[in-house]
């Protein structure tokens, strides 16, 4: 099974995709995580795009496509995959056919108020990228990653100025891809409606199996 998971920033795509990966063996591939890995490893791409990512703007299509294609070519996806963060707009939907076919696009639907609460409380481990939320998914010890013991940080692009820009880009560029996938008969809309990430993952699994 090959699925795209989409939704507004803070909709919980990464968390839900991580749970789906654990439960099914499908590989979670996040373009945002791949970019952040490049930044942490100070690669050529990483140095080129770090300013763009912190400001909340999108990276150019050519760089994004090349990075994702290399990733898909370098890993085994025999159990399927969950693509998180791509496509981001209609141009990228059209580029998809040069990358892979997909079976479903799962949209996590969440209110604007919820988005703000989720993002402002989100903290990550700087080396592994593991995601916490100060209220909904806190670490065992305040501010410390459960596994590595490192201090958790707030992503630069989770700071208020960048969040406003990411939401604008989402509404203007990413939201329209839903109609496109709907017209292709591939859209699964999940209203999060206060469900936990585990419950959302279960709903998705039920619908796709
Ligand atoms: P995310 O973790 O999906 O919120 O992505 C973090 C940031 O990575 C985004 O704000 C963009 O700057 C960049 N990014 C991730 N995926 C894409 C994509 N498909 N196209 C362009 N930029 C992307």
Describe the structure.
The chain is of the alpha/beta class and 209 residues long. The chain is 47% helix and 15% strand. The chain contains nine helices and seven strands; from the N terminus they run βαβαααβαβαββααβα. The strands form two sheets. A five-stranded parallel sheet has the order 2-3-1-4-7, with helices on both faces. The protein has a two-stranded antiparallel sheet with strand order 5-6. Helix 1 (13-24) crosses helix 9 and helix 2 (31-40) crosses helix 3 (44-55). The longest helix is centred in the last third of the chain and has 15 residues, at 160-174. The relative contact order is 0.20. The model has no long low-confidence stretch (mean pLDDT 94). Bound molecules: adenosine monophosphate. Residues 9, 31-32, 35, 52-53, 56-59, 64, 85-86, 88, 92, 157, 166 line the site of adenosine monophosphate.
Could you tell me the number of beta strands? Answer: 7
The portion of residues forming beta strands comes to 5-15%
* Mean pLDDT over the full residue set: 94
Low-confidence stretches: none
Q: What order do the strands of the largest sheet run in, or round the barrel if closed?
A: 2-3-1-4-7
Explain the layout of strands and helices.
Layout: E1 2-7, H1 13-24, E2 27-30, H2 31-40, H3 44-55, H4 61-74, E3 81-84, H5 90-95, E4 104-109, H6 112-121, E5 122-124, E6 131-133, H7 160-174, H8 177-183, E7 187-191, H9 197-208
Parallel strand pairs: 1-3, 1-4, 2-3, 4-7
Antiparallel strand pairs: 5-6
Bound molecules: adenosine monophosphate.
Adenosine monophosphate binds at residues 9, 31-32, 35, 52-53, 56-59, 64, 85-86, 88, 92, 157, 166.
